[in-house]
Amino acid sequence: MKISSWNVNSVRARIINLIGYLKSSRPDILMIQEIKTEEKNFPFNDFKNLGYKSHVFGQKSYNGVAFLSKININKVNLEFIKDENNQSRIIVGDIKNKSQLIKLINIYVPNGNPIGTKKYEYKKNWYNSFTKKIKNTLIKNENIIIGGDFNVIPEEIDVYDYKKYENDALFKLEIRKKYRELINLGFHDIYRYFKKDKQEFTFWDYMAGAWQKNHGMRIDHFLVSTNLLTSIKNINIDKKPRSKIKPSDHVPIELILN
DNA sequence: ATGGCCGAGATCCTCGGA
Known about the structure:
The structure is a single chain. By secondary structure, the chain is an alpha+beta fold. The protein has one domain: Deoxyribonuclease I, Chain A (4-Layer Sandwich), CATH 3.60.10.10. It has 5 helices and 14 strands. A 6-stranded mixed β-sheet has the order 3-4-2-1-14-13. Strands 5-6-7-8-12-9 form a 6-stranded mixed β-sheet. It has a two-stranded antiparallel sheet with strand order 10-11. Helix 3 packs parallel to helix 4. The chain is globular. The protein starts with a strand and ends with a strand. The chain binds one DNA strand through loops.
């Protein structure tokens, strides 16, 4: 089974690229973030035509997350955590893989910049409530996959020039510690688990030729609970969509399960 | 060293993103 995650930066602006990706990569489930539209304007039929059912937590203009899936997703939940700003940033559901029940969690964590503002506090609060909820969820089900745009650069190797980001909400130590606290509940950053010393990115800014210069960062992640680790076969960052016409600034990451 | 790009929604600019 292949589960992909992609911050598409508007589902409607990206529809051609999305269809192309689904046709060539054929994930069983695609978790998308920053759909930037309400459910009533979501392109359900484009995905249905390719065999995908959509579960949408929309929002006008900003944020918004969704599952596109060829397999059943049960107990879809848009209220896994209470969002203090009522933003659409998380969608949760249950899937089955070879008789294992897995809780699948698709997140779009607040950016948090600039630091020292209420946006930064919002990001910290978001991580605090998310980690607390995950801690409780682990007691009930030890099979958890969290994927999405975490807006965290985990380590120095995960950005083209870490010194530029030490006072940025994506790399500031305080935020990296929040990410570390989540992992320490019993998760693995699957990309880093499989590729110990490799430098690859999932995001390149639209500005200043960042893509051409490979000025990127790794901020989209899959965290898998320890219990599920032996069920994970591989992980891959698919950089091809970043070279297309009208690309998202993020690329898909693909988790392969046995 | 600096500034540069997109998308949405309501105009011809602002906000948000990372």
